[in-house]
Write a structure and sequence with these properties.
globular; two-stranded antiparallel sheet; 3 domains; two-stranded antiparallel ribbon; 21 helices; single chain; mainly alpha
Length: 530
């Protein structure tokens, strides 16, 4: 019998104890920064010197408190977004949007345009890309559990199996999560800790997202086509008997309506955006630290587009209006980041407003909205707590004054390594760490304060270090048994974990190798934003 994997909190507390023990063994040290003139150009030079270490003992019990103090902004950010999305998800709006999308694609099967091609493949690709965008833009993860119960029966009714149904949702979102174009939970937090402009380097990350999705979607399409021809070849053919007997999903029971409160919300939002148009008629766009910028009437354009699509959506149902709110929340997030240098506070506030407006549009009383928000906070609280606890590890090491000593030792041990080997080693460390701590936010809080300055010492850009974290965090989320999301998805889909591992192992090998290949240009080519 396999031993039960310790809880993430237990693992992190063990690491805190180990960190405290290390302060008794490792000598203290610090890097002194000074400026030198090299060929007439000023450059920063770091010199290391040993100091007295400060042994940590009872401080392990204060690590959570100190970690919360250090990571307070990130923790509040996570709680606000979690509560906002819970309010929106209570409307079943995303479910309705996906159902409508599938109906449109199904009708397209009889058109002249799609007759020469397999419309089923088009459906699979579109769904995977949709969830991949969700994963890349706002870090969709836990939400995939709710969609599995919709997509698995759909996939089986199309002649596929439950692996395919899970793949188009969970793997699709996972590919986007690894690509992380604008994911605030991973890239946003990691770059903030590393001291980089928020979402800088977006150009190369978009290229990586395309490559990763091309590889992942191709793998799924090849597998799905093979299973459609020979359904009994599926490893889960027997398990899928449950789904073959089940029939249609509960989505047919959703009632479409538009309350007066939704129209009032639409008028208030449109009016508020019109006011913003007066103050921000032009937006100067600049991606990260790219050179050059250009100004366009972005806020007025988005406002007009929202006014049109919101009106059309309300004529159908409040569900479609809430989908419109979500879409424009994402669009304004992009505009705010690249045009107004928004940080975590502004993004959290934007999503918080989306959640409140969704609740008001549904005609929920204030107490109901608050109750839903608190439910969402409770649901995501473990992720927020683990960020504070992980921050305690760094505080123990910093208080013991051994962080710089560890960095010095690592840099000395990797002196013979080239840049490619160094970034590859960072990638390996992040990948292995993800097997025991699957929370991307926690890993960013734990590793980036060490990895970012370490990359300076070995002459690797901090952006490359963030990408090593990004890939190391993203891929193995789809296989690690410590991931509550993965176990939840497999439980809903009725897929045994060991069969899932056998099925996804080849894809994991492809993606992990691909991640290393995509890291090579970050240290060998001069990329914009790096």
């Amino acid at each position: 019998m396999l031993r039960k994997v310790p809880h993430t909190y237990v693992i992190i507390f063990y690491i805190i104890i180990i960190a405290a023990v290390m302060t008794w063994i490792i000598p203290g040290g610090r890097y002194i920064e000074r400026t030198e003139l090299v060929n007439g150009i000023e450059s920063k030079v770091y010199e290391f010197e040993y100091t007295q270490n400060v042994k940590q003992s009872w401080q392990v019990f204060a690590a959570l408190f100190r970690g919360f103090e250090k990571q307070a902004g990130i923790i509040v950010f996570i709680l606000m977004i979690g509560g906002a999305f819970w309010i929106m998800n209570s409307s079943k709006a995303i479910d309705v949007g996906i159902k409508s999308f599938l109906n449109i694609i199904a009708r397209a099967e009889h058109s002249r345009i799609f007759k020469p091609v397999d419309v089923n493949n088009i459906i699979l690709v579109f769904i995977m890309l949709m969830f991949s965008i969700f994963g890349a833009v706002f870090g969709m993860s836990e939400e995939t559990i709710a969609f599995v119960i919709i997509m698995v029966p759909l996939a089986i009714s199309m002649g596929y199996d439950s692996f395919t149904g899970v793949a188009i949702v969970f793997v699709g979102a996972g590919l986007g999560f690894a690509g992380a174009i604008l994911n605030p939970f991973t890239i946003g937090i990691a770059q903030d800790i590393a001291g980089l402009p928020l979402f800088s380097g977006i150009g190369y990350r978009m290229f990586c997202w395309i490559v990763i999705n091309t590889a992942g979607i191709t793998f799924i399409l090849i597998y799905a086509g093979r299973i459609r021809k020979l359904p009994k070849k599926s490893l889960v053919y027997n398990e899928d008997k449950y789904w073959r007997k089940r029939g249609e999903t509960d989505l047919n029971d959703i009632k479409y309506y538009t309350p007066v409160s939704a129209w009032i919300t639409y008028i208030l939002v449109t009016g508020g955006l019109a006011v913003f148009c007066v103050y921000y008629p032009l937006t100067s766009l600049k991606l990260g630290n790219y050179s050059g910028s250009f100004s366009i009437p972005l806020v007025p354009a988005l406002t007009c587009l929202f006014a049109a699509t919101g009106f059309l959506a309300l004529r159908k149902s409040v569900h479609f209006f809430i989908i419109s709110l979500l879409v424009f929340t994402i669009l304004f997030l992009i505009a705010g980041v690249i045009g107004y240098s928004w940080q975590i506070m502004e993004i959290a506030s934007l999503f918080f407003a989306m959640g409140i407006l969704s609740g008001v549009a549904l005609n929920n009383p204030a107490n109901r909205i608050v109750g839903l928000f608190l439910e969402g906070v409770r649901d995501i609280l473990p992720a927020a707590l683990v960020v504070g606890l992980a921050g305690g590890i760094i505080e123990i090491l910093r208080s013991g004054q051994i962080v710089d000593t560890i960095l010095y030792g690592l840099s000395r041990s990797m002196e013979g390594f080239g840049k490619v080997e160094s970034v590859g080693m960072m990638y390996v460390i992040q990948t292995v760490l993800n097997l025991i701590i699957p929370s991307g936010s926690a890993k960013a809080a734990l590793t980036m304060p060490i990895m970012a300055p370490f990359s300076d010492l070995i002459n690797i850009s901090r952006q490359a270090t963030v990408m090593a974290y990004q890939f190391g965090d993203g891929f193995t989320n789809m296989i690690t048994p410590t991931s509550g999301v993965l176990i939840g998805v497999l439980g809903v889909a009725r897929i045994p974990y060991e069969k899932w591992v056998r099925w996804i192992a080849p894809l994991m090998a492809i993606l992990i190798l691909l991640g290393f290949i995509l890291l090579i240009p970050t240290v060998t080519i001069r990329l914009k934003g790096f």
